TrEMBL record, chain C:
Domain Aldehyde oxidase/xanthine dehydrogenase a/b hammerhead: 20-124
Protein name: Xanthine dehydrogenase family protein molybdopterin-binding subunit
InterPro entries: Ald_Oxase/Xan_DH_a/b (IPR000674), Ald_Oxase/Xan_DH_a/b_sf (IPR036856), Ald_Oxase/xanthine_DH-like (IPR016208), AldOxase/xan_DH_MoCoBD1 (IPR008274), AldOxase/xan_DH_MoCoBD2 (IPR046867), AldOxase/xan_DH_Mopterin-bd_sf (IPR037165)
Organism of origin: Bradyrhizobium campsiandrae
Alphabetical list of SMART domains matching this protein: Ald_Xan_dh_C (SM01008)
Amino acid sequence: MERRLTDQTESSDAMQAPASRSVYIAPSLPAALDALDEGGAAAAPFAGGTWIMRAPIRHEPLKSLYVAIGKIPELRAIKVDADAVEVGAAVTHAALAATLAELAEFDVLTAAASRSANPAIRTMATIGGNLATTAFAAADCVPALLCLDADVEIASRGGPERTSLERFLTMRSTLAPGRLLHRIIVPRRGRRTVHARLPLRQAGDYPTAIVSLAVSLDEAGHVRTARVAVGSVEPVARRWQRLEHALVGHPLNAAKATDAAAELAGEFTGRDSPDVPAWYRVRVLPALVRRAVAALGSGAVGDEHGH
Amino acid sequence: MNMGIDLTVNGDHLTSTSDPVTPLVDVLREEFHLTGAKPVCREGFCGACMVLIDGDPTPSCLVPAALANGCDIRTVEGLAANGGLNPIQAALEACDAVQCGMCFPGMVVSLTHLVSTRPDATREDIRAALTGNICRCTGYERIIEAALLALATA
Amino acid sequence: MSDASATMNFARRDAADKLRGRTRYTIDRYLPGMLHAAILRAGVPSGRIARLDLTKAARMPGVRAIVTAADAPGMIGIGIADHPLFARDVIRYDGEPIAAIAADTPMQAQAALAAIDVEIERLPVVLTMAEALAPGAPLVHPDWRNYEVLLEGGARGGNVAWEATVVRGDVDAAFARPDVEIIESCFRVGRQNHVAFEPRAVVASYEDGRFHIETSTQVPWTIRNATARLLGVPASRVRVTVPPVGGGFGLKFDLAIEPFAALLARASGRPVRLVNSREEEMLTCLFRENADIRIRSAVTRDGEIIGREAVVLMDCGAYGGEQIFLTTMTAHTLGGNYSLGAVRLVSRAIYTNTAPNGAFRACNGVYNTFALERHTDEIATRIGMDPLAFRRRNVLGDGDLGATGQVFEGDVLGPMLDRMDTMRNAAAAPPARADGRLYGRATTVGTWFVFVGPSAATVNMNADGTATLVTSGVEIGSGSMMQALPQIVAGTLGLSPDDVIVRSADTDAAGYDVGVGGGRTTVSLGAASLSAAQEVRTKLLKVASEMIEAAPEDLVMRSGRIEIAGAPGSGRLISEVATRAQAQMGPISGTGAFTGAGVSAMPGCVAGHFIDAIDIPVFAVHDCEVAVDTETGQVEVLSYRVVQDVGRALNPRAIRGQIQGGVVQGLGYALHEEVTIGSNGRVCQNGLETYRLPLALDVVPVEINLYEGAPSIGPLGTKGAGEVPILNVAAAVGCAIANATGKAVQELPLTPPRVLELLLDQRPTLCLPHIAETWTENLVRPHGAGGSN
């Protein structure tokens, strides 16, 4: 005999947390850090809210203190320099896409930021939230920034700490209270970049698989450097280094890249979900690679064929 | 420590005593009895709870009341002067677009914004702009038609 | 008897308020002192409640009432009363209600739910129909024999909740003929969630010893009667009123959460609001049922269908509900479209430990039409005949017999196929296609019906020249109550439809009605309204004839006047006549009533059926063109065309709106919307992230042709038009994908992963071992052995 409380399926209200819940709207980064430090495990930063406010459907309790960081000017700033772009963690997808629209080398990031979710969500959801939400495997900006060799800067009372995005992804779920993703630093290397994503509908979905690609070519048109990042296929986005190696030294050729991807795709273990079987996420990777590489030739990539 | 949340809703200065993480849609509906915005999915997919916050279409299910403090909020009830219809509302009525009506508060908010900010929007632009507004009844066609009509007569 | 045309593109009167957010749906209602309710639902699919301790919950802040199975002694159902309001000792599905609480705030109600202590002993579980039909399977209802039978004639046994059969002619002989090809096809379809934007919601109060239930429903009288039955009170103690309904699609064609609120209102003495969360709706919505189908035909080389047999298994979930009735429909959907020699069909509703299924727009029809049309294409391929030519040869025409032996009247489908040809041929040639995708097209036919049944209407003629129409009809969004009905009354009385007030449903004010669904509103309520308006007209003309000094038969009613025919401007205003009548003999009113004509079937053909034949057939021809991406399995619908049999189009614009919307809902069913059930018995898609509805970018404008003039007993020749647009969408899409890919499309929905599996030949051929090879072995009782109803 099992003795248990029945699982609750009722969740019409986000009101399941203690009555002493509060939201602190931090006016500055130090103020936010102080509040997070003092709040400890009971506190969490709140940026766009598009993930946290959906806690009820995940049957997750809300925290008792949220430190709202969306109004902190330096977290909302995008700084475009000659050698790098710095993006504050609370910059929204829409703002990022608008700012980078004219910078061709960031096409991958512009596409990621301007096609994720839906228009209203893009005006709310932040780049920092996209990177920091461990449970969100389908984040568009993660593979886009991985292929751009982005670093992140984590702020805390003890001072800033800069690390690669790749490393941040391994430590984000265990980030100590009081440490906050401050900004993302993306080097400018003049590469050609592209973001290929596969939603199940025409748009408005989280993509089932993402291939982000950044390459530089030599004078002969051969790939000098390549960065390929794969998102949504596994629980955490990652680089596809074997495919990168396969691309380097050759001219950009969609058919050959597709073949290489098909040969190498076995290294991915797809994640299962109620709507998409694991095998599918892996199976479509070569097609996304083909689209990405082909688009670098033509300068554009669509979400699907022929449009 | 909760001193109340000050909001300007359709031009009225209102104060909410809600828990600060309460979704704005519940404040509007349960506290202020502005039931136009509909909490349909509570996840930001359907758009039925869309309101304008400082001019931007925003799903009010995802906005905690505390973060709306000091904001200018316009709900579907407050889009037209003197109880009339604004251009998109009039176009939707003229096109016989409405069926059950539950999605329309959000549709109207999204399209009001589109009509006022993108006068040259094409059919494709309109379809793309509506990816966060789901309609279960109409199959969208009349809504798109109405948006084009409103743009043409604006 | 009408002088003014009822046909017009009359606008909806509810549009402006809906567009301004002023309309108060049930979820928007707020009464002084209102409490908020929540339901404790089971978290296991099968178990026994060993202990249910409410003491701690009852002491929680704000709690005003808690009710459980002890408060609801009755059982309800269709055909058989198998469904209690709360799980009584036994839990049969994940999500089954155990207790309900009313508290001052929603948060308090939730907190109190969490304080209920439940002890559940797990019991064996059957989650699929294959498991349910396996030898020795655990029974979902071990006591099935003891349930009250509400309709005699259905065969039942174990996990077979209901079985309906059709046998006409000698099928064995047909299949044994040497000159026939035998074609067999198997199909499996998943569930579909209505996702009505307004969830099921109710506000109940208890006043003067009666329940007042304000609810979001399509069936006020069902709510009245079923609530009374569950609560063990006379039905006259329940009043149901219906605010504007935010979408139904069949979801609200059955009782839902109304009795919980009613019980809590009585227990607390306060009004109680109960609104399902989206997650509750996703998990327990009375889905369109999943089904397994095997169909087999004996066809001559020149395309005559000599014999056909089929087995349809419909998952009813833990309780019989609508599926019991829907077993009837297979005869008219899977058994429809084509003229058949001999035929035998069995349709079985199967109990499983899953959330109960229910009604959904063109219930049973959408998947049976998918199966029938895919099977039809497989037949055409086998005998080497063009699929359109095969359809033309066999579609039901004047004098043809339906599956149950009813005689069809008029050639309708044939001319509709011609119309489709014309539409298709008029279309611009498609652009060049060199993008590597696979292209395909299909034209499919479908047979549906108008679910007639009883309706009542009263028309009160007001002295100011307006009329008030009182019915139990509900405006669910389809517009029938806003457009067709006032148009019918106005046309009869020579008024503007704006001058016809339409009373919203109130079981205390209007007579019995089956409900809004099955495409019956315009037909049944329309016929009752027409008859009531005609009575008013007769009375008015009598009074007018005295006033104008002309014989009633020389008078016409138009433009708000009663005049001598051919003499515009003569006569009197209707308001003057109504005022005179009111003074002389009291206010004028008329009543009307309607029910189905009861078209007869062939004696002995059917067993376990709720209706023997279809009073008003409705036909549809759909044409769809798709492109299939071979790398991803994504399907793009390139064009969609509909020729729909509407009888007579009273409001063509409104019907076109229904068709566009219904087709898009069908595209969702065919391509995007998937429900799966986990090993824990719970529906996996709990929200709109994973349950994908068509978005604006996923749809195409539907090209529409309204086919008028087919025979109908509906008022003014109408047929229901809102139900049928979804009917053959999955069929058209499925056949088009099969044509594009050359693969055997056997399952729905055709999501990109499923299509890619087909393209890669990685999807195993569907086999249905729980359907016996020999048709008769699928029956719990031989056809006719228990007597037909």
